[in-house]
Amino acid sequence: MITYIIRRILYAIPILIGVNLIVFLLFFVVNSPDQMARKILGEKNVTQQDVENWKKQNGYHLPLWFNTEASGISHFTETIFYQKSVKLFVFDFGTSDANNINITSQVAQRMWPSLAITIPTLLIGLMVNITVSMIVAYYRATYVDFWGTIVAVIVMSVSQLFYIIGGQWVFGKILRLFPISGYDTGTDMLKFVILPVVIGVIAGIGGGIRFYRTIFLEEVNRDYVRTARAKGVSETGVLFKHALKNAMIPILTNVVLSIPFLIMGGLVMEAFFAIPGLGSFIIEAIQAQDFAIVRSMVYLVSVLYIIGLLLTDISYTLVDPRIRFE
Amino acid sequence: MVLIFFLSCGIPNNPYPKSEQDAEIYYSTFDEEPKHFDPAVSYSSDEYRFIQQIYEPPLQYHYLKRPYELIPLTAETVPQPRYFDATGQKLPQGAPAASVTRAVYEIRIRPGIMFQPHPCFAKTEDGTLRYHNLTKTDVKGFSEIKDFRMTGTRELTAADYVYQIKRMADPRLSCPILSTLQDYILGMEAYSVALANGQTDAPFPGVEVVDRYTYQVTLKAKYPQFVYWLAMPFFSPMPEEAISFYNQPAIKARNITIDRFPVGTGAYRMETLIAHKEIVLVKNENFRVERYPSSGEPGDREAGLLDDAWEIIPFIPKVIYKLEKEYIPRWNKFLQGYYDSSSLSSDTFDSAVVFNDTGDPAASEALKAKDIVLRTSVRPTTYYLAFNMLDDTVGGYTPEQQKLRQAISIALDYEEFTEIFLNGRGVVSHSPLPPGIFGYESGEQGINPYMYDWDAATDRPVRKSIEEARQLLAEAGYPGGQDRKGNPLIISFDNTWNSAGATARLTWMRKKLEQLGITMESRTTDYNRFRDKVKNGNFQFIFWGWNADYPDAENFLFLLYGPNGKVRHDGENAANYDNPAYNQLFEEMKNMENSAERLARIREMNRLIQRDAPWVFTFHPVSFGLSHQWVQNSKPNALGGGTLKYLRVDAKRRSENRQAWNRPVVWPLWMCLGVFILGTIPAVITIWKRERKPQ
User: In chain A, what residues touch B178 (CB-CB under 8 Å)?
Assistant: First the structure.
């Protein structure tokens, strides 16, 4: 197992270099350092000299890839790519280009409000989705299954924005049961997270039911289920004791892979509910042409994704003893 | 259970703690995270609304009077420049600009003004600064200024203003107006170069401390608009202790910087800064005695804006700004009484505003029922469609080329545009100057005679007919929208309009030009490409705008001054208009005091640009602001941002209204619960039956 984990970590290094390279390429194909400077300095009265000053202060006066004026290894190290990339690998994200704010501390501050919404949404959503999809599977080929599937398709076809605005309107404005938006820490947090969590669960219920229903239907048609039934195990026993256990691999894959994205929060949800999370951090950085934040956040997501995949593989051994790492 | 818990808490949708219920707090919002609070770096209205409450430049705009009037803030008087010629001889005030080689502004500040309490001033018993030479261990776990236990203060001196001007010269700061200032302030360019080379003791003759309360700024030429710069946050005082405090590596590493935690003398100081959540300002305990204005413009007394005359300000001890990126929740919370004021978007305009018989806007019945007050004001902003005067087709200065642009200007009916797309929130423009700026003229004198006729019967301008536009187009060599060879006239419109409503606007423009037989090609692109196109002159026709830095005609008319051309001089003249007659008039006008002579020159300049039509004059936006009845003394002030100190809030009335407007409705929840329970009974019975059924 240890050897396997070390091997996977070593595989991650070229992947992260590749991700960093692609981000750098894409960013500077669209934005030049001059354009970044003009965007960050503002529109009025900015001269080329101001732009040059800004570039020099922020390390964007160097060539992108290859410094013809340098010598030896400095050809490569005295470049924007090297200077901006090398620290990422020791998780030194530095400061933002737009306002010199420490990126690590921003991530550390903003991930908690995001998690306050996404973790309950994931857990409650998982319980609701599995329960409802098991009920639908239990009533397979009946009108409950038929209408359940139709409702699930309708629910998943509606934009999340509709649920958010509708939820705010009904529960916040008409019934006046929850604050329309906002966030606080401590026990006051509860009144702000309930509505987004409920909306998040409802918005995800359609896709969840369809996904888990398929898994359970696949399981209940397997030979071991037929054997269990032949042995006289009740239908609920078949579902909860046998099918659920064996459906854990796809469920775990789905859940563990989503863990890295919990930290990143949800852009629309956080914007409408004024949750001070990470959801809008990267989007706003792209709009502001803040390369420091963009590369750091993409790098962080890549690392988390790789960790998520590794955890998924490890978790398989826990639910299925037949799986062993070679 | 959760529901019962909330219902027991009083008003369950109240986003604020119970402790704030009757507190005199002003609640407002911001929709974008501010990036800079350093007055040497910040140049955005989103940031000015905060820092202008904290920092105090020597001058300010009168809160109530219109047109905008400069008055002292920390200065004793508005400084009058002294002019000198090349021999050092003093010149009279009206001296011609060409003879002036030095303009000296001597600013005397009022004694006794104290800085806000701040740890950078804290001293130990032996008189040394307490929080200087800090180590990482000293500030372990610190993330805000309030984490420092001790604070101190000191008196504001002239040296603080001089220090700030010297800071602006430092290229490491990236002050956005450095290049502009270098053109005017004596020795600033050389000082900036010296700083870049590490020479911190280089001379800077343009800025000098005269005595403890007096400093002077020397300009290289006559520039009467300089006094307006003295009302901008760039020229706020900066204590040297603050910079040495924030420059400590241990503090920098904690993300505690001058760009986040200001140190000022204003009515408020920053208590909490979580830029992605909220900003809290509290009254500066050291703020001097300052009084509410006792005079305003006609109508202010009737509107109750002078009820607090001579009262000591500020009235509100605490201001909380919440980050609300989306308009819909912000608007709904305003209607619930959780925000004290709100702007108005197109989405809610129809439900919030009605127009009375005279065409004036008023709050709708629904808002009136809540005693919500509507205030409108024309912003000192101009929007325009700029032709590229360097372009072979739409540019040029011949009478034919002028007529082509005039025809297009007539066809693009911006009265209709403001009605359709802005709900009437715009004043159609006849020149670059918006109302309230010296040189703006209403009535027959102020119209653009190339686009409008004056209708004496209705006493208003009437846009020339489309037939007249067609005639002009024919005279321009494009009868029916075709050139002499029969080729159709195609004009490209470069823009960044990629939002949801953009298609309708583009269609409107296309249809208007089709009336002349002109085909408009829209070239929508991202902002970087668009900016490059404008910079390189690679366009025919663009939409652009300008917000005034200060209320002077020069700050608008320079947008068409030849030596400010975008392509050749990297200036703000996006049309690249370069008419020697206009340039000559501009050079004369910009150095004149507001007078009949200056007005005559502005009129002449307006006639030239109305004839040459390098712009299609479109509109000056009108801002619509709403506030609850418990907010008093609210008056829109587009140029002076430090206005929080004048507002008053009746917290008791607000609390009563919030309670009345936000009583929870719970019966639908009990109904849903009942339906759920009833719905599960058949399911449970079915499962029970199935389980009992023999296999």
Answer: 49-50, 53
A47, A188, A276: residue with CB nearest B570: A47
pLDDT tens column, B286-313 = 999 999 999 999 999 999 999 999 999 9
Backbone angles phi, psi at B71, to 5 degrees: -135, 160
Q: How many residues are present in chain B?
A: 695
In a domain, A326, yes or no: no
Mean pLDDT value across residues B363-385: 92
Q: Are residues A85 and A150 in the same domain?
A: no
State how far the Cα of A68 lies from the Cα of A76, in Å rounded to an integer. Answer: 9
B427 neighbors B485 (Cβ within 8 angstroms): no
Tokens of B154: 């000191």
- pLDDT in the model for residue A22: 94
- Token couple for B370: 């809540």
For the stretch A277-324, pLDDT in tens is: 988 888 888 888 899 999 999 999 899 889 888 888 888 877 777 776
Same domain, B602 and B650: no
A26 and A122 part of one domain: no
* A323–chain B nearest CA distance, Å: 35
Residues of A in contact with B259 (CB under 8 A): 99-100
What's the gap in Å between the CA of A154 and the closest CA on chain B? 20
Check whether residue B442 and residue B543 sit in a common domain. yes
Do A51 and A117 share a domain, yes or no? no
Work out whether strand B59-61 and strand B25-30 pair parallel, antiparallel, or are unpaired.
unpaired
Strand-pair category, B278-283 with B318-323: antiparallel
pLDDT above 70 for A325? no
Identify the domain boundary among B601, B623, B645: B623
User: What gap in Å lies between CA B548 and CA B622, rounded to an integer?
Assistant: 14
Contact B572, B564 (CB under 8 A): yes
Mutate to test the interface with A, among B174, B279, B321, B672 (most CBs of A within 10 A): B174
DSSP string, B282-316: EE-TT---EE--S--STTTTTTTTTTTTT-EE---
Q: Is residue B411 part of a domain?
A: yes
Q: pLDDT digit string (tens) for B437-493? A: 999 999 999 999 999 999 999 899 999 999 999 999 999 999 999 988 889 999 999
- Cβ-Cβ pairs closer than 8 A, A with B, add up to 158
> Mutation test of the interface with chain A: which of B16, B147, B229, B326, choosing the one with the most A Cβ atoms within 10 A?
B326
Can you tell me the distance from the alpha carbon of B417 to that of B424, in angstroms, rounded to the nearest whole number?
9
Query: Does B645 share its domain with B677?
Result: no
Q: Which of A100, A178, A194 sits opposite B257 (nearest CB)?
A: A100
Q: Which of B669, B685, B680, B670 is nearest to A131 (CA)?
A: B680
Residue A163 lies in a domain: yes
**H-helix or E-strand spanning residue B320:** strand B318-323
**pLDDT tens digits, one per residue of A170-211:** 999 999 999 999 999 888 899 999 999 999 999 999 999 999
Q: Are residues B274 and B416 in the same domain?
A: no
Among A231, A213, A226, A139, residue whose Cα is nearest residue B690? A139
Separation in Å, CA of B567 to nearest CA in chain A = 12
**Total tally of structural domains belonging to chain A:** 2
| A194/B332 Cβ within 8 A | no
Q: What is the domain-level CATH number for residue A285? A: 1.10.3720.10
pTM of the complete model: 0.89
Instruction: State whether A191 and B11 contact (CB < 8 Å).
Output: no
Prediction ipTM score: 0.85
Torsion of Cα atoms, B568 then B571 then B574 then B580, to 10°? -70
Range of the domain at B690: 665-695
* A234·B3 Cβ contact <8 A: no
**Total number of domains in chain B:** 3
DSSP-assigned letters across all residues of B310-367? T-EE---SEEEEEE---HHHHHHHHHTTSSSEEE--HHHHHHHEEE-TTS-EEE-HHH
CB contact under 8 A, A272 and B257: no
